[in-house]
Each structure stands twice: as C-alpha cells, then as structure tokens.
Amino acid sequence: MSSKFPDHFLWGGAVAANQVEGAYQTDGKGLSTSDLQPQGIFGAITPRVDGDSGIKDVAIDFYHRYPQDIALFAEMGFKCLRTSIAWTRIFPQGDEEAPNEAGLAFYDRLFDEMARYGIQPLVTLSHYEMPYGLVKQYGGWGNRKTIGFFEHYARTVFERYKHKVQHWLTFNEINMSLHAPFTGVGLAEDSSKSEIYQAIHHQLVASARAVKACHEIVPGGKIGNMLLGGILYPLSCKPEDVLETQRQNRDWLFFGDVQARGGYPAYMRRYFRENGIQVEITAEDQQALRETIDFISFSYYMSGCVTTDEAQNNTARTNILNMVPNPHLASSEWGWQIDPVGLRYLLNVLYDRYQKPLFIVENGLGAKDRVEADGSINDDYRINYLNDHLVQVAEAIDDGVEVMGYTSWGPIDLVSASKAEMSKRYGFIYVDRDDAGNGSLERRRKKSFYWYRDVIQSNGNSLKDKA
User: Fold this and answer.
1) CA distance 435 to 451
2) pLDDT of 322
3) pLDDT tens across 245-256, in order?
4) The pairing of beta strand 10-14 with beta strand 80-84
5) Eight-state DSSP code of residue 145
6) What DSSP line would sit under 283-315, residue for residue?
7) Cα–Cα distance between 6 and 12 in angstroms, integer?
8) Rounded to 5 degrees, what angle do the CA atoms 43, 48, 52 make?
9) Which range, of 50-54, 93-97, 267-271, 328-332, averages the lowest pLDDT?
10) Is the confidence at residue 317, as pLDDT, over 70?
11) Which residues fall within 8 angstroms of residue 270, CB to CB, at 6 or more apart?
12) Which of 14, 29, 215, 413 is the most exposed place for a label (fewest CB within 10 A)?
C-alpha cells in the first residue's frame, strides 16, 4: 500500500516502569502499589515481608540493561519510546519535600541514551503505580491531599527533564479505576461508587494541574491524557441495545470529556444523581479542570458488544471489562477479540468528539512464542495482527483523522499487567525469562523485529492491505 502516514509520524513502542525496570528497591526506590500486586492488577493485594519476591522485582532488568535495549529499539528505527517514570524512584513515600537524587539521575541516563539515537521520549507520570506510602498514610487518591503530592512530583520532573522530554502523559488508562480501584486510585476493591468517583475526581484535578504545570515549565511541551479505548458496539440494532451501548461507552469517554473539554458533562451529573453518588467538586476544582490536554492518547486491544439481554450479559462476566463477545470476530489465546477495523472506528469516534490530535500509545498481541531449534522465533501471528491494525490506522488518516504516532505495546517482552506473566509475550524482542522467574534474560530478535524495522523505514509503505 502507498503510505498515508505523515512524514514526522512517531513510530515506536511502549513500556511501563513497573513491568520492565525491576530493581524494585534499588537506589532508594520506595514501595509502590504495583509492588504489592505480585499476581498482576487483578490479583490479590499482598503486603511485602522480608525474604519474599515477585517476578516484577527483577522484571526484565531494564534498569540495568536499558543501553542494550535502547540500541535494539534504534536498530528497528524507533522515532519514539513511551515509558513511565516510577513515582517511587523520585519520592519513595510520596509525601517527601525533597526528591531522591538517585532516582532522578537514572532517568537522566535513560533519556540521554535515547537522545543518542534520536529517539523521542513519551513519558507517563503515573502508569499503574503510586507510592504505597500515600495509600497507607492518606488513603490514596481518596484523600484530597494526594492532588498536591502529585503536582509536586509532576513539577519536579518537568523542571528536571524540561530540555529532554517534550511529550508527556498524566495517568495511564485513567478509566481503569472503575474496574481495578487499587491499581488506579489506591482504594480497596470493595469501595463504594461514591468513594471511587471522589478519588477519580481528585485524580482528574491533579491531571489538570499537571497540564498547567507542563505548559508553564516545559518549553514547547505537549501533554496528553491516556484512555483505555474499550469501544463497544450494540449486539443488535434493537433501540434499547443502541442506547445502552451509548451509555456504557460514556462510562470511559467521560474521562476524555473532562480532560479535553474542561468540565463534567451533563450525562455524568445525571448518572451521579440517579445513582446516589456524592462527589465533592469545589469551585477551585472546576477552575483547575479548565486547563485541558493538548492531545488524546489511548490503548486499543479489542472491542466488545453490549446487549440488554441479561442472560447474555451473565456469560460475559468473566473477562476484564465484562464485554459481550462479538460473534463475527476471532480471539487471541487469552480470549481478547481481534478487531482491526475497530481501531479505525475508534480513531474516528475520538477525533469527531474532541478535534484534537490522537496518539495510539498501546496496541499489540499477547501470545505464547516458541524458540525454534535454530534459535529463530517465527511470530507471523503478531506480524499479521499488527499489520492489519496499522492498515486501519492508515485508513483513519485518510478519513482525515490527525494521528501523531503509534507505539506498539511491549516492543520487548515484559511482565504482563493483568496477571504478571512472562509467557504472555508482546515483543519484537524475546527475553529469556519464564513465569517462575527462571532464565538468562538474554535478548533475541523475533521475525517481527525485522518486519517492524521495514514498516518504520518505509513509513508504512511495506504494510500489506489484504482488502
């Protein structure tokens, strides 16, 4: 296909500190909420005791091996790498006045290494982790004081890296707090809706304050939000199904509406009123929320369906987002439905709604890879998945959607977020480590490594449109 991608399109990959870095207590790092979730974001919360260990404690040892990994990303031609700063490397408990210099110095080294190869950082301030000290001492995002702690952290890293990082994100998949409250806002899983939405409100205010700080501190800096793009279709054209689909899509679009439009939409106020949800929103909060993001970023892995048929809904209550399966789609080994056209649809929905640039910051296929006798890894299934999704991105660009870039999830194998598995591999680069933590951590190029290198080098011209 002829390329429809703009000349300065930001091709690359995306990782998260808690899934790659390891070194979980090195150089003064404090305990994060992720460190208390050894089985992933939907697993039990387990207090740390002396002598215990989890797979994320080492992860893929990116903290010590990043020069090797950045070189491999450069070999593929990356223009951009999305990563996150581990908040607890900078403020180990979260409420300190002075930052931890060793933590700040690590990210200086990381960003300098990326600059050597011309790779732009896209940095998430909070990616599925926060200082456990803030949960223990203050009740996490349920406490209004956490807004100030986060703003202090954001201003600290903006000042430190203002000449090294131009693109920032506030909170990873901010709408996931509705499904995993401890992961998202540091609250117990059985918290009430009022408690969860109050914590979310505090986070939205903190996000807006970080946007203001970025605009004040970082010359030419751009800062976006980050949504889990769980687009839903009506299972039938029954009007009740269509209306319920709109309602459920608004559950997550609400986060984008506040961050991109600067206030709470009327439909959300009605939802709060009719469900007895009490959220304290001050005049100062409303003023803060008017500081809106520069671009919309999102993850996209799958779509789902909605029906008002309760019997069918009951069968869907086993997957992450309670999505009703689409009978027209195939699924991955983990039951995630594969819908490339859904990405084009989602891009159009978001652009129609916000008229802001869009950035696809996560998209990929988790699968079990096999190392052949000759050492090769022939992951054609991953190539096909990514090719078909990128073809649809090109179509959306042709539709008139402004797309800034595409960072595939997990360009190197990492510990999966949902269940803390190594066997659920996303990468173009294989890492020799298994779910039990065994392995040499050796890196190995997969077949998809060379495929993605060609995609970037050709600016999308090498993609194969199978239509």
Assistant:
1) 27
2) 67
3) 999 999 999 999
4) parallel
5) H
6) HHHHHHHTS--SEEEEE-S--EEE-S-HHHHHH
7) 14
8) 95
9) 50-54
10) no
11) none
12) 215
